[in-house]
Write a structure and sequence with these properties.
This protein is mainly alpha-helical and 472 residues long. The chain has 23 helices and no strands.
Length: 472
């Protein structure tokens, strides 16, 4: 007897979606459970409801595993970043950036300087994670020493890190967004400038105004001197310690594979730690695996330098695997298609089209936990509608990046949200109010959708005459 697969109704799809959200949110909010266990629990809870549609367990498992396989590459990058962070602290790379940053940056202009510095690094590398794990950690250390709010500092770091992640031609999200809608990456980047530049300028002004209202007297001179003294005493600071950062910069701008580049950057840090800082091989391998550990007796120093290691990234690898598995489960069930199809039928105007695209980008980001999932789902389902409204595909890719890419670090349960909070040591909901770029850019996206400004239309093809041409 041939089995039949039922297409889920809208009410059944909404029930599954609400059930998933209820399971995860109950665990996170009421039970304060780790996001990893709640994602896994949601998968187990939803499987019986997908089985009722007629799928076999083997089919469901195959779909989830195929989706989970997409976590392999980012997981390897994640673990390489963990290794890099640990060895860069041991090599003196991060301590050097912190030391000279403290010496040269005024508290009044620290936040806007942090924004600009992280923007340059992220544009050059195309990686928000590499920026957070290097320049981000350094600026957190400087801000902590200058007694600047960690929430504001993290907000400036995130804004700068995702500025480059969004605009750099080296970024995986930038290339993915362009590829999904079928356009050249530079066409995509150029079109994003209309929304990103004004939002970035406003963000820089806000950070400058906040900084100008920072009381210089609030700086704890004793703590600053204690930190800089410790760094100068316990690390060999200077240009040699910066070599791993320069090496990684060269690898990334020459478009070497991200995994290899970050791992080799970590290896460069390990070599500098051995030959310049005097750390033995056994110890540096321990740092690469478990992270850097120090007992200075000074809480600020210990909390700043005890970071990194491959092990520190394993919780985030689990988030990747479970989030993508959940996405695969929802995909095979037809739940997403049913919900999205019902929404698409209601779109009657350009402004509503842009608004729904933005909401769908955030929605799929929250479901899949990554831009990869959000970009593919949103781009695939919304492109026919942009064609219907005679709008160029770069309008769609811009809306996706203005929302989902910059939203990655704003949702506590996504891999980027957890990575950012863990790396900077600041909870997601604490730094979220100061991520001005991520909040301002979508406003311009919607404004342009409403007014039509910078919304490129397809060139209308000239009508060919049907009149017969006489022949000789």
């Amino acid at each position: 007897m041939e089995k039949t697969i039922k297409k889920p109704s809208l009410s059944y799809s909404l029930f599954i979606l609400i059930l998933m959200v209820a399971v995860i949110s109950t665990g996170l909010i009421l039970l304060e459970a780790p996001i990893q266990i709640m994602l896994f629990t949601a998968i187990v809870v939803l499987i019986p409801f997908v089985l009722r549609l007629g799928y076999s367990y083997e089919e469901i498992e195959k779909a989830m595993f195929a989706s989970m396989l997409k976590a392999l590459k980012p997981s390897l990058i994640l673990m390489s970043v963990g290794i890099l962070i640990g060895t860069w602290i041991a090599s003196g790379t991060v301590p050097t950036l912190i030391y000279y940053g403290i010496q040269s940056i005024s508290p009044q202009f620290f936040l806007v300087t942090t924004l600009l510095f992280c923007s340059v690094v992220s544009m050059a590398t195309g990686s928000s994670w590499a920026t957070l794990g290097t320049a981000g950690i350094a600026m957190i250390g400087v801000g902590q020493s200058l007694d600047v709010s960690l929430a504001m500092t993290a907000g400036a770091i995130v804004s700068g890190a995702y500025f480059g992640d969004k605009l750099s031609p080296l970024s995986d999200t930038t290339n993915l967004a362009a590829a999904v809608v079928g356009i050249d990456v530079f066409t995509h980047v150029k079109h994003m400038l209309w929304t990103t530049v004004p939002a970035y300028v406003l963000s820089a002004i806000i950070f400058t105004l906040i900084g100008l209202n920072t009381e210089v007297a609030a700086v704890n001179s004793a703590e600053v001197n204690s930190l800089t003294g410790y760094l100068a005493t316990n690390f060999n600071l200077g240009i040699i310690s910066i070599i791993p950062a320069l090496f990684l910069f060269v690898l990334l701008i020459t478009k070497q594979p991200a995994i290899i580049s970050v791992f080799l950057g970590g290896v460069a840090g390990a070599l500098i730690a051995i030959f310049y800082q005097g750390i033995d091989m056994t110890s540096i391998l321990g740092v690469a695996y478990n992270g850097f550990f120090v007992e200075s007796g000074i809480e600020a120093i210990d909390s700043l330098l005890q970071r990194g290691g491959l092990v520190s990234m394993l919780p985030m690898v689990a988030i990747f695997i479970f989030a993508l598995g959940l996405g695969g489960l929802l995909n095979i069930s037809g739940v997403l298609v049913t919900i999205i199809d019902s929404i698409i039928k209601m779109i009657k105007s350009r402004a509503l089209l842009v608004f729904v695209t933005m909401i769908m980008s955030y929605f799929t980001l929250g479901l899949g936990g990554s831009f990869s999932f959000a970009g593919v789902m949103t781009g695939t389902f919304m492109k026919p509608l942009f064609d219907k409204f005679n709008l160029r595909p770069e309008n769609l890719s811009r809306a996706m990046e203005d929302t989902a890419t910059q939203g990655c670090a704003l949702l506590p349960w996504t891999a980027s949200g957890v990575f950012t909070a863990t790396t900077l040591g600041v909870p997601t909901l604490t730094y979220l109010p100061f991520c001005f770029l991520a909040m301002l850019t979508p406003l311009f996206t919607f404004l342009y959708g409403l007014t039509g400004f910078s919304m490129k239309e397809e060139k209308k093809q000239p009508k060919h005459s049907t009149k017969e041409v006489p022949t000789a």
